[in-house]
């Protein structure tokens, strides 16, 4: 029976909302305590119900809600009754004033979709707000998801300015702070909420918004896990998602009508603190006001999916809609296949969010016959009963906070089910729920559970958390005695709409975060609460209990149409684990039902830093379909090997670095070093080939915030694959181990991906500004790709990458001014050697460090990168290999345009009958990168110094009348000793230009320009010559022919025309073994060598 004191509280005219309407200067927490603290019952037990019949009990519950014209069903009242009874112990446990707990409303929209779709609706609601917005979330992390919301705040401010109004916005999130031991709710100043990790808009960007932010946490474990919004006290959004980029399928519902007043009250109580500016709608309740979407209820169900597709609303291309019908049409339209596209492809594209853009789908097109529909406008319906069943946060490290409305509602729903229970939750291990679920099965109820495979397994293995989903599933099935009982327990692992098997959450590619329980197809609980230990005992959660068979049926249909869990996700009743229907294997990453004696220690581990995981996902799951990328990779392969041939032919200094460390050593099945007779282990082989590729500075280049040479990665790739191929004879294509087939096709794929990894990091991350040489990125890309080639698991590849970041890194001092030495010619070889070594160390069983980047104080970010995280302009793809600059002259890349410009100016000068002696000065306008790297004054001490001096190469071009050659940098060269050239260097002025620098960094333009103006002693001037795209740049039409000439010219240093023709044909043969190609470059094999 409802305790009398609870009955009286539900009938009181006083609520937190009404008190604040009378005096908005009060702190909501103090009002809440003042109204209800006197009713607190320390005993914590409900009054006995001896002699009370069921009808009287439910009648009392009926009288404790504001149901309007509706009449709750018996099942709803049973659950509501039990939730209300918990208020006897603590009226504040429900985080809502008791008179608001039971109400009614409509539910016009349900969203079951990846997180960005939920944020799009949040953004539209914010943009359409008139007076106020409340937003509560657990995590808020700057991301694409948060940018959708912050863009909407800017749009709201703009619209409010046009109306001449100001909108009050209040936001709560949970970011743990030691000060919360004394004050659970901390005001967040603008400096903090505009910081890099949050990036809410500063006040001057949103002048027509009054923004106040609070950080709320109740130590130790009392997390603010709530995720809801209230807009203008007319709309409530209740969702499963935080605001951070992730791979989750999430759920959001939109509620309108009197129930919004309950959410509003909860928002005020959660806020707790005094308002800087009170909410304008404190005296304007939702009850009595028409629901904003009432007109939408006339839209026939499914009409939202009709009509033309509209442009997608993104962070960079914003499209705000006027109502939910247009929103639904816009979002659902993105799931329509493009002409000629398989039906699964748009689903994959939609599920591939910023954190995992390269996951591929394997579901057959027939699975899309019932299409995924992210936005579902509800069928027309009248207002129906609803109730808030929340729980307050509990920080103490114990399980004493169990008697709350949320927990009672979950238990009561299970205990009163007669036919069916449907559950979808990330984790299900709350101990008090398990036996009631078993009892439901035993009494004939069909219990269906959709659980996420491996969701936060590490956390669930910690002491007192009760274990993983696989462990719980096994326990539940093992507790049932008969096959008939086990047939009524139906546990599934989440399978995404474009997949045919579950993917473990550790890979962050397809996870599910929905929290939903439906009982007998007519009563449901939806919201924030998981069915796990943390949600059951500690976190603040907001949930809605609804009484509508229509909505329950719509929810079940939407859940099943937007995922393939029912089709493919069933676990085995024998052990509670999912098994592949063909191999019988559990999914990769699964730890099964017995994680081991020290499983709690696994729970102490952390996931790998996101950049490490992103590289690994790209390597293992990105399918290269662009034929132009493979064409570019073939050119890159030939150009790079031709550079190695040139170095072997022309540089005795480089040849001195080659060969085994112990002279005469021959490695059986070793790597055959091109253009030599050496056969080496893959580690020394990577070094030696790296020397040959790079020593003369003639290999390709790519600019960005960091300069670099992606072709350096071929050294590690080719040495490893050739060694693997020879070690696997006589059948290299099917060599032992899980590494990819050792063919030219695989070699090209490896090269494309190494280029891309290095290229993406170069664009926005200036390692040189912090004194670290750019070959750190060669080590990164090579180590990652070599791990994949070796057949390491994804976890091992992440470990290898972590070793790259914890490694020592070379200082770029050997490239600067008087310190420039020839180390710059073998630094990339050293990086490739380290990369192979680290991958082999991990293959031998060594672990990695998941937090190697972000750990404080010794993570890479803090130790080596100024405390900043990496920035990326785009997701990994194939852009780099298609846009790299192939150098057709041995000049540092930033100086090539200046040399070309000087040669044009020299032709003009000669036509005027003038010479170098007539030149007073030359002004070179160029990029900041060129100014930083190759602008040198004073003496030049060696070849490495000269080829990295823009004044030297420009003066050389003027005096010589043609492009520099490698021999022009040598100490014995006449040009190195030329006093005329030295004097001309002093007359060359280098000016860093902002526009050229901006175009250099622009991914669309990606120029590498320089402009030259020549001033004569008589005062005349040769007009400026600007070269933006020198020969070798993909945008220069003369590049293709020049690159081919370079390749042929270098190969002729060693090979005959016939042998070169065989090499060119081999590179086009995707199925050829890599070792066969390498044999063609090895001098002991090639009988036609000219060396």
Features:
single chain, 1091 residues, alpha+beta, Endonuclease, Chain A, four-stranded mixed β-sheet, 40 helices, 24 strands
| Measured distance between first and last alpha carbons | 99 Å
Any idea of the CATH topology of the domain at 611-883?
A: 2-methylcitrate dehydratase PrpD
CATH superfamily of the domain at 611-883: 2-methylcitrate dehydratase PrpD
Return the average pLDDT rounded to an integer: 92
Biggest sheet architecture: 18 strands, mixed
Strand content: 5-15%
**Poorly predicted sequence stretches spanning 5 or more consecutive residues:** 42-46, 298-306, 597-601, 729-737
Structural class: alpha+beta
Helix content: 25-40%
Number of DSSP helical runs: 40
Shape: elongated
Radius of gyration: 34 Å
Number of strand elements: 24
User: CATH class of the domain at 611-883, please?
Assistant: Mainly Alpha
Region (Disordered): 285-306, 332-369
InterPro entries: MmgE/PrpD_sf, MmgE/PrpD_sf_1, MmgE/PrpD_sf_2, MmgE_PrpD, MmgE_PrpD_C, MmgE_PrpD_N, PLD-like_dom, PLipase_D/transphosphatidylase
Biased composition (Polar residues): 345-368
GO molecular function: lyase activity
